[in-house]
Amino acid sequence: MAIERIVLVEGAALPLRGDNIDTDRIIPARFLRAVSFEGLEAHLFEDDRAQTTDHPVSNPAYRGASLMFVESNFGCGSSREHAPQAIRRRGIRAVVGVSFSEIFFGNSVALGMPCVSVSADDARRLIEVAEKNPQEPFVLEVSTMRVSGAGLTVPTALSPAARDSFTEGTWDATGLLLERFEEVEAVAARLPYLRGWRAQARPT
Amino acid sequence: AVVAETLLQKVWDAHTVRLLPNGQTQLFIGLHLIHEVTTPQAFDMLRGRGWTVKYPARTLATVDHIVPTLDQRRPFADVMAEDMLSALERNCRWAGVRLLDLSSGAQGIVHVIGPELGLTQPGMTIACGDSHTSTHGAFGAVAFGIGTSQVRDVLASQCLAMDPLKVRRIRVNGQLRRGVFAKDVILEIIRRLGVNGGVGYAYEYAGDIVDRMTMDERMTICNMSIEGGARVGYVNPDQTTIDYLRGRTHAPENETFETASAWWKSMASDPGAAYDDDVEIDGSLIRPTVTWGINPGQSVYVDERLPKPGDAEPQSRASLEEALGFMGLRAGEPIAGTKIDVAFVGSCTNARLSDLREAARVIRGRHVAPHVKALVVPGSQAVRAAAEREGLDRVFIDAGFEWRGAGCSMCLAMNPDKLEGREICASSSNRNFKGRQGSPTGRTLLMSPAMVAAAAIAGEIVDVRAVADGN
Ligand code: SF4
Q1: Which helix (H) or strand (E) holds B374?
Q2: Are B468 and B362 in contact (CB under 8 A)?
Q3: What confidence score (pLDDT) does residue A201 get?
Q4: What is the pLDDT of residues B118-162, one digit of tens each?
Q5: Residues B13-30: b if buried by 16+ CB within 10 A, e if exposed
Q6: Cα(A18)–Cα(B316) distance, rounded to whole angstroms?
Q7: What distance in Å separates the CA atoms of residue B308 and residue B331, rounded to the nearest whole number?
Q8: Distance (Å) from CA B347 to ligand 1 centroid
Q9: Residue B137: phi, psi to the nearest 5?
Q10: Closest to B32 (Cα-Cα) out of B50, B48, B46
Q11: Per residue in B288-339, pLDDT tens?
Q12: Using only C-alpha atoms, what is the Rg of chain B?
């Protein structure tokens, strides 16, 4: 199956301060009461937004952002894919931050939304630039692993596996996993709890 | 001799299909558990691409997050909840997947029923669209939470593309003191290693305290691995594991059980296996623990005071202030004496029979404080029935608790059980995130079921050791 290669993400950035922003905050659980992901973007950070007057997601200046800058352990907690779905559906195509929870990171890969890591100082600097100028354009180069904008160029980190998935367009894994199905069946046939314990007990 | 290996390595190798071109491992998933929240979109994607469920017999469904715990008659009063359950029913019928629904007598929180049915077994790989899948690691399975696109992957191929994990062994040695439970141990681990300390790791829980623990206690510990950032947490299978599994519905029978037991034991980490990190905790020093903040790492012993942001390292000051502000608690004040509005005994962390027994022990002959709304939500229909056979329902009802049907209930905001406004809840669940219990401004204090019970009686946070004879 032809999947989009993701090499470059360009555009303005939405800055979001705070460590340990969990997926319950990104998309509160009541909005998971649905059988599709459609319309989730309307509820992105809904409860956080209601509790402050200046949440960047509510700020019209960031409406067109295609990058998001965050701090550490972003997306921790619940495995809900609804969180990266809501972010992606809001128009964000890549997230730059200090660190990400593993499940959030993996869910984002499956959506073709890179989550790349930068140092804490660089994350702070990027956030400050985007706070000062919401229109400031940035470029994330997935292939060469750097993000630049406003005269700033900072190195990013991304596991080679994830990077290759994006740049080679293999981030949607299902096709790959089905490719050599006979090898899957071979593993199943070898696992004692699948082939049956009785078969296991018999001398081979 | 062969190289000494960890359980993680052995299970990983046994389930490896191949190395993918990008360096990830294609891992076979031995058991796929599904529920109503994270699967409808996965089934739609599957059908959209013309795929089918490859191993329906290795897939099991239940309904837990959205079920009302009071009136469970169909159709549910809540149209959205009814829609979600109907979608699951349709999808399971379409795929030939077994669904343990409300009429089955075996329904419950997915992480409670897998083990109690004997489906969760040592040496397996287990996946579920739910981050607390780590619970099943208590049996020496490698079990982890996945997102909806990955649920689609497992439905379609029974496989996942996975990055390798490092292993951190956490040995808890010594002797737990009176009034200290598995919940306190895992809260201690998270407090020490941090809420993201486990990213990239599987946690192997060991040490003589873990060795002596029951399966229920090990499940409580493994359940909250993800709260420490570790997607996988496990305990090596031993005689306790085997004794638990013997005679369970889906456990091997008769002489095959012995064959299975031998394989299960062989999957345990070898003595001398190398670990990427090794941590030791003196369990004798742990005291009953309560979270005061907005992540599970923000906790204190019940006889301690809340931290002062001024004393903290500069980089953590802002998050301490944010947490204290949200919680409406004052720096430097004792946590004991914090008034509560709601007491909740439930969730996949602490709603098994032993948890209900511990809570009942504290409240027997006492009554819930007049201003407190208290509820007990068994983790499964089987737990509920077993508790009723022991008369625990009477103990709770007599003490002023509500006795509910099985489900996730007030652990999260997807069913009618919710906090209102700024209510504070003493909760045996696993997450104290902002808004987690259904009110955007609601507040959660996590603790053991015995501590929740003690708080319900006193109407405020109290030291369970002062109220009951503890354990
Ligand atoms: S009880 Fe809570 S944590 Fe456990 S599965 Fe249900 S919602 Fe998730």
Answers
A1: strand B373-376
A2: yes
A3: 55
A4: 999 999 999 999 999 999 999 999 999 999 999 999 999 999 999
A5: ebbbbbebebebbbbbbb
A6: 10
A7: 5
A8: 6
A9: -65, -20
A10: B46
A11: 999 999 999 999 999 999 999 999 988 889 889 999 999 999 999 999 999 9
A12: 21
Tokens 């409580």 found at: B220
Helix (H, G, I), strand (E, B) or coil at B444: strand
Joined tokens for residue B242: 């085997």
Q: Which amino acid is at B109?
A: I
Please say whether the beta carbons of B167 and A48 come within 8 A. Answer: no
Query: What count of residues does chain A have?
Result: 204
Query: ipTM of the assembly?
Result: 0.94
What the block records as the tokens of A182 is 């006979």
B interface test, pick of A82, A100, A103 with most B CB neighbours within 10 Å = A103
Token pair recorded at residue B212:
């002596």
- From residue B259, how far is each of B124, B251, B262, B326 by CA, in Å? 15, 12, 5, 54
How distant is the Cα of B443 from the closest Cα of chain A, in angstroms? 14
- Beta carbons of A164 and B22 less than 8 Å apart: yes
Regarding the beta carbon of B64 and ligand 1, being less than 6 Å apart is answered yes
| Region of residue B256 (phi > 0: left; psi between -120 and 50: alpha; otherwise: beta) | alpha
Residue holding tokens 């109220």? B467
Three-state secondary-structure class, residue B331: coil
C-alpha B307/C-alpha B334 separation (Å) is 9
